[in-house]
Write the structure tokens for this entry.
Amino acid sequence: MTANLDMIEKKYSEFKNKVETARKVLGRPMTYTEKILYSHLWQPVTKAYVGGKDFTEFAPDRVAMQDATAQMALLQFMHSGRKTTAVPSTAHCDHLIQAQVGAKEDLDRAYDESKEVFDFIESISKKYGVGFWKPGAGIIHQVVLENYAFPGGMMIGTDSHTPNAGGLGMIAIGVGGADAVDVMAGMPWELKFPKLIGIKLTGKLSGWTSSKDVILKVAGILTVKGGTGAIVEYFGEGADSISCTGKGTICNMGAEIGATTSVFPFDEKMSAYLRKTDRADLADMAEKLADELKADAEVYASPAEYFDQLIEINLDELEPHINGPFTPDLAWPVSKMKDAVEEHGYPDNISVALIGSCTNSSYEDIDRAASIARQALNKGLKAKTQFTITPGSEQVRATIERDGQLATLTEFGGLVLANACGPCIGMWKRMDTKIGEKNTIVTSFNRNFAKRNDGNPETYAFVASPELVTAMAISGKLSFNPETDYIENKTGAKIKLDPPHGDELPFSGFDKGEVGFIPPSPDGYKTEVIIDPNSRRLQFLERFEEWDGNDFLNMPLLLKAKGKCTTDHISPAGQWLKFRGHLDNISNNMFIGAINAFTENAGEVKNQYTGEYKPVHEVARDYKRHGHGWVVVGDENYGEGSSREHAAMEPRFLGGKAIITKSFARIHETNLKKQGLLPLTFANPKDYDKILEDDKISLVDLKNLAPDRQVEMIVRHANGTTEKFMLNHSFNAGQIEWFKAGGALNLIAKMQES
């Protein structure tokens, strides 16, 4: 039976009328994205919203949090004044499990090392009516797809890859914890109304090409920032032919193009998946509403009229792709990879091949990968590289164990890791290489920034489909093209692999395995949340101070970041995940990976008052101790990557006042606003070049901060000269109140108190 079915029934009973009302207000046919957005407005629709311009308030249906972000989200929620969450919410323990030697051992070790945190999340979840998924139950995005996503719904999740749910026709948006607090506290959730990118898929996938290759191709077209501020809506005969979980894979990695989210219209593939995951009641309801759970016919007939950007991809012609290294949008068709290896000097020998994760661990994915492994075994071949399998959920793991794929992959040479994020997020303890050793890995993951997987800046990480990764594990070469190349087996015979095949869904249904779910308790409010005051991993939050109404004058420049500055650069994961519930301790990683534009080194900056170069957090703490607010200057697409709000909370905690960049990634810009910082952009991006190491920066006339009104910055150089620059911002009137209150949470608490 479907979870929260009564809530979904109510949504569906209102959906058609809300869409019809919106259609009349707009005076035109609607895309599927628009139908979901307008049907989830906080207030009844009265006007057509302009994408990329109008701020809009929404009422999402549910919230999901992973364990690394749930700590801080729920610590903030404690200050909201509520006794329980206003919408169905869940917490999922998937990030704090380090991959090392195998599923059981790694999970046991995680329980030992992080018991304090798991117990805390379980207790605070119980207190506030949050469903709790234990360690080992699965990765948040896969569990959401299997249990909670529904066509036509809207949810937010404290992880950038929440869009998995788009594979089931749901708008699912990655956010920071403060946004989750808004929704859990029963407040409207604010988002700048997205622009719309339409992707029309024609033809049908075949051979070695898989659903993963669709998003790898799209990433190559749009780049890591091309989807910023937009929702990507897929449609067409090609979309209809892709499995529900294949659609989820495509939507998941949409986070790597900066997209607000991605979504597919409801179809038979989704209905089949719902029925196989024990949600026939939901499938029946969705089928009755099927005409509305997609764009209007006029949109499909003339899509260019209804989308801000339209891309067409013919699946009949789509090649398998390999993306990387160091960025998920560097897209190589497999036929061009050999040339790329030679031209760029990429290490050709593969050290580790990894399949699975939240984006590519469906039954279909594993079945197709296992078909390659079985074929190899039958032809006298095995994995030449290290080979790992990360099931996305206990349900997937138990099912592929029952149906034999896991045994095949193990015989092939595979190591089964826990149902958790592990190597994808830096929770991977490698035994085969040392830091600084140049090597190549290939994965079916979604993100491959430098140092992302194993902390080694010399690990060249490439992203491909699970079946292609499996084939490359047999050859041991990045340059291998299974469509054309042969592999020699032990007998000297030259073998050419046949294309993969696999079932979209298990014939015998899914095996639930050890479910690992603790539902909300009706008397949970009686639970006392206890944190050891001496804990190194957990710390109760204190509210940030309110703005005192004065301008920010003569602030030292803490850091001028050069080039790519992702949330991994600002607040890395890996070993630092253990401190996500302790703001003071995790702040020791602030800007540890950011490149100092003046020294070309990472993690150290000049203290303007002592002249010494020290770790960034030490200099920031010194400034704070002496009452000096400070500023950071950044490059393009600053804050790209995850939804990690620690990348915003740490600068606020250590005394930062403003982050000034050429441009921001969406989630990070919002996170900065939520914490009471000023995210500002150069009106003239070339002014970035004029900022010098010893500059003092003033932001003036802040009392008149207003929407669409520029902020004046005065820069005083060490030689005594001054320059004046104009800065833009995206604050609306409500967000300016966040700044004045010292953060959005302070404002929520005041409203609850009143």
Observations:
- The CA atoms of residues 349 and 477 lie 5 Å apart.
- The longest helix spans residues 103-127.
